[in-house]
């Protein structure tokens, strides 16, 4: 079958536009500078508490049962603590969601990084969805909680990566 110029020209024009439209010189790839970290005061330790991006709920941060911060989605804070053993808890407003206490032992000069998240696993299944006046089967993917919210240690390098997408919030209390 022969195609005329009236059919081929718009197709070639669209392809040329699509292939060159993304070819913009944006310069070299750059990364943000690492965030300046708080140094612990003499005889103290600093603990950075981070939220995993994408978790929608706000959590209350408790250290030894005392509320020290409130972390909304996409935030982090730093708290100063004296050397010793602490129990950290991150509570959600929905008290039906369990939270597991995490033990933390600090010595003077420590700088630690912890994030809180609910462990999940991916799920897949089939469902039905309307499409153009018909109902068609679709694959559904999601996440299911498989445990209680807990604090997990991470490296300074990983924390710096999260800092680039999180916002700092002030702690309401610096524990002695």
TrEMBL record:
Domain of life the protein comes from: Bacteria
Family matches, as PROSITE patterns: PROKAR_LIPOPROTEIN
Protein name: DUF2846 domain-containing protein
């Amino acid at each position: 079958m022969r195609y005329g110029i009236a059919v081929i020209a718009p197709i070639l024009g669209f392809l040329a536009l699509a292939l060159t439209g993304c070819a913009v010189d944006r310069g070299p790839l750059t990364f943000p500078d690492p965030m300046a970290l708080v140094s612990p005061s003499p005889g103290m330790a600093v603990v950075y508490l981070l939220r995993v991006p994408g978790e929608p709920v706000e959590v209350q941060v408790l250290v030894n049962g005392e509320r020290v911060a409130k972390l909304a989605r996409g935030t982090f804070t730093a708290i100063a603590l004296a050397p010793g053993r602490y129990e950290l808890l991150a509570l959600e407003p929905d008290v039906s969601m369990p939270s597991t206490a995490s033990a933390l032992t600090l010595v003077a000069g420590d700088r630690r990084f912890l994030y809180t998240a609910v462990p999940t696993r991916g799920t897949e299944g089939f469902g039905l969805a309307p499409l153009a006046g018909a109902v068609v089967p679709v694959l559904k993917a999601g996440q299911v909680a498989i445990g209680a919210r807990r604090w997990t240690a991470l490296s300074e390098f990983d924390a710096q990566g999260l800092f680039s997408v999180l916002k700092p919030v002030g702690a309401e209390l610096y524990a002695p």
